[in-house]
Design a protein that fits this description.
By secondary structure, the protein is of the alpha+beta class. It has 2 domains: 39 residues; 182 residues, endopeptidase fold (from Nostoc punctiforme). It is built from 9 helices and 8 strands. Strands 6-5-4-3-7-8 form a 6-stranded antiparallel β-sheet. The chain has a two-stranded antiparallel ribbon with strand order 1-2.
Amino acid sequence: MRTRLGKFFAVLLGILTGIVGLVSLISAGLLIADGAAERTARVVPSYAKIDLEELIAKEEWTDEDYDTVYRQTGLKRSGADSVPREMLPLFQEAFFFEGERRHDPAASTTPHDYLIDEEGYEFLAPIVPLEEGDVLVTSSCHTYGWRNGHAALVVDAEPGLEKLLQSITLGEESVVSSRRGGYEWFQSATNFMVLRLKDVPKEERAALAEDAARRLVGIPYSVFVGFFSPKDQFGKDCDNSERKTHCSHLVWQAFCNAGYDIDCNGGPLVTAHDIARSPLFEVVQVYGFDPDKLW
C-alpha cells in the first residue's frame, strides 16, 4: 500500500513540477515578448535635427525639400501642404521628442503607451488637419508582447470637434467618440499614423465616413470576427442580429461597405498593422514610427 502511495505521490509531484516549469517558461516568454514590445513603443530618428528656417522661407519646394520636411517632421507632401509653414518647427520638435513612456491599461491585458513631458503632463503631439474618411492607426497598444495596436475612422473633421468611429474594448459597443476620447488619445500615444485613400475625391471619402457613422454604431466587440462569424458583417452570409466587430475590423468594414478592401493580406483577421500596410492608402503623417520602415 505504501509503495503504491509513494508511486502516486511521485507521479503527482512530477506532474506538478512539470506544470510549474511550463508556467515559468510561459511567464519568461511573456516577459521577453513584453520587453521587445517596450523597445518598439516609439522610434525617434537616429539622425540630427536641422534648422528649418531656410526651407520655410523658400517660395516653392522641390521633391528633395519635401523629403527633408518628411524626415524632419513626419509630414508627407499632402500633410506638409496642409500645415502653415511656421508650424513646421512644432511638428519637428514632437517628431524628435523622446519624453517619458508610461502605460495606461486600456484593458486589463492591453496597456496603452503614452508620453509625459518634462513637467509631468501628458504630451500631445501636433496632428495634421484631418479630413472625413481619414484613418488613424497606432501600435501603442500591446497584449503580452504583441503590438495589436488600435485603429479608428475620422467621421467628423470640423476643427476642435473632430469625432472618430471606433470599437474600443471587450464589453463595449462601437461608438462615435468626441475630441478627448477620440483623436487626442492618438496624439498622446507613443506613435500614430494618419492614412488617406489614394486618388479618391474628398467628397467620396466624406460620404464613406458619413455612411459608416450611420451604420456601424452600436456593434458589440469581439476578437473572433472572421473566424467564428463572417468577416463581412454586412455581407449576404451574415445574420444582422449577430454582428460583431473590433477596432481594426470596424474600420475595414467601413471601407468594405464602400467597395474598398484595406486588409493588405486579405486574411480572416484584419489588424491595425494590416490597415497601415494597405497599398490603397497614402501616408499623410508619421509620428513615433521609423520614417523608412513605418510599421
